Amino acid sequence: MIGLRSTLVRDKAPLRKRTVRAPIFLVLVVLLSALFAGVSTESVSAAPAGASAFRGMAPVRILDTRTGLRPTAKSSTVLAVAGANGVPANATSVVLNVTAYQPDGEGYITLYPWGSATPNTSNVNMQNRRAIVSNLVTTKVGLWGNVVLYSSVGVHLIVDVFGYYVPAATSRAGRFIPVDPTRLLDTRKTTRVAPGGRVTVPRPANAPSDTEGLVFNITAVNSGVRSDGFAYWSATPAGSPEPATSNLNILDVGQTIANQVIVKPSASGVDFYSYAGGDLIVDYMGYYTGSSDGDSDIGLYVPISSTRLLDTRSSPNPLGANVAVHHGWSVEVATGGVAGIPVNGASAVALNVTMTRAHDDGYVTVYPAGAVRPDASNLNADRAGVTAPNHVQVKNGTRGVTLYSYGGADLIVDVFGWFVGFANSSTYPAPVNTLPDAQLFPGTLNIPDIKLTTKVREQVMMVDRDPSHLIESRTPSQPGNVAIFGHRVSHGHEFRNLDKLKIGSFIYLTVDGKQYSYRTTAIDIRTPTDPLLYASTTNDQTLSLVACHPPGSVKFRIVVHAELFDIRTL
Fold first, then answer.
1. pLDDT tens per residue across span 288-297
2. How many helices, marked H, and strands, marked E, lie in the chain?
3. Under DSSP, is residue 563 helix (H, G, I), strand (E, B) or coil?
4. Matching CATH topology for 176-288 and 443-569?
5. Which residues are 80's β-sheet partners?
6. Could you read off the pLDDT of 310-329 as tens digits, one per residue?
7. DSSP secondary structure string, 316-383?
8. 567 phi and psi, to 5 degrees?
9. How far is CA 385 from CA 199, 389, 540, in A?
């Protein structure tokens, strides 16, 4: 199963062919070119307000800050999109592939219509300074045809436009018809694509020959990287020359990464070009109608102000604040009645889904709530600790959408729009989440502030040799509290300096090849029989270090409480 990322920034193809270069200004500079551009002859929508039809186009690069001014931390780049580069001035939304390259550190990019307040959402997430991260973005167009790219950290930005939406009360072409995800290609079962090679996916049989666009989720697997350090995949109409844009970028050899793509096919289908070679998985998510289809409002797109629907690190979260979607778990997210989305009038929704703090290698699948989970995926992690965003255009259920996690992760879901139609009937009850399997100790505990590194064994009977995990508590891979008991004055007296820890002190616990990073939140004194020494009162992932108190006495216990903030594969 595999998920998604996208576009690469490079000094060679696909970035070398800068056919169109839009002017870019930062923060308060207004671009007026779109104001005087010609207006499309598309009809203006009556109802629902903002309803729009999609128009596919050959991808065009409209921004590359490597040739100009690099956005700084907490800056806004205003970009003219409507009325330029083949996008009409009356476009309501645009479909972009946005790439963040060489960020100053961990951060994010948020796109929104110019003239609106910066929303509490994100589109592209960067994990470190090495990042090359891309994501498909559908965003409303703002004043004078502009959109804003807000950067939380300094970073280069590359933007390619793949299509746009225009007002329409009804339309023949450009209405989105979602399908049950179908795997069309998996080169792991056929032939690996060589560097500089391409593989063609024919137009699916249910998509019209004049379709405005096909929606795929593509995943790179067993990725190669060329000697220049770059690797990417590009989706283009079959038979096109080597592309000047890209959709999916690879950072490391062997990386698994995915991204959603919307591409207008040729008569032969869609070509997927690989700069550095590797395997590719293509899942088919739906299509846009063509001019040969009947006139209707079903499948028209209605853009909305971006709204956060789920954030398992805090809220909103139906699992409880700070409760991750653990391995094998699912979470339902309601869409109807939120941000103007009708309760039973949306056939599909346009989401941005981000996995972060992945517990292990794995994937996330998004599908209509109450439906059978498909054999497909939307996001992927090839190790613990991964952060990855993806644009997810998916069928909607009467109860909303379900997100399933294989491997476990925190999940963030933002919604940007919906498609007119009827929601898929949510027939089946919500999945029941059960406790994931426990991990087995031994492990290693490291606390820099008290210069402690020690082995951690299983069961308290081993405490005379090393600090030991209390089997009454959870393990790091599970929701709830992990409790470790150790001596202060006898045997190895590893916990003699627990009282010297401070709020904010870091604690690192390594088990089964994964490092779990915790931050101290409280230090208190309890009686030996107090269940809060080890109990899990919530499904938060927490840690308790327990020892006798005061030193030399067994009357009380000192307890250091900490909460998980990061996971990494070592």
1. 999 999 999 9
2. 0, 33
3. strand
4. no
5. 146
6. 999 988 899 988 899 999 99
7. S-TT-TT--B-TT-EEEE--TTSTT--SS-EEEEEEEEEEES-SSSEEEEEEETTSPPPS--SEEESS
8. -135, 140
9. 32, 13, 17
Domain ranges (residues) in the chain: 176-288, 443-569
Q: What's the CA gap between 345 and 338, in Å, rounded?
A: 12
The answer to whether domain 443-569 has CATH 2.40.260.10 is: yes
149-184: pLDDT as tens digits: 999 999 999 999 999 999 999 999 999 999 999 999
Q: pTM of the full predicted structure?
A: 0.86
Q: Is 339 exposed, middle or buried (0-12, 13-18, 19+ CB in 10 A)?
A: middle
CA atoms within 13 A on the CB side of 380: 22
Which positions ≥6 away from 363 have C-beta within 8 Å?
A: 1, 2, 3, 377, 378, 379, 380, 381, 405, 406, 407
Q: Which of the 8 DSSP states describes residue 428?
A: S
C-alpha distance from residue 133 to each of 69, 368, 388 (Å) = 19, 27, 8
CB contact at 8 A, 355 and 381: yes
CATH number of 176-288: 2.60.120
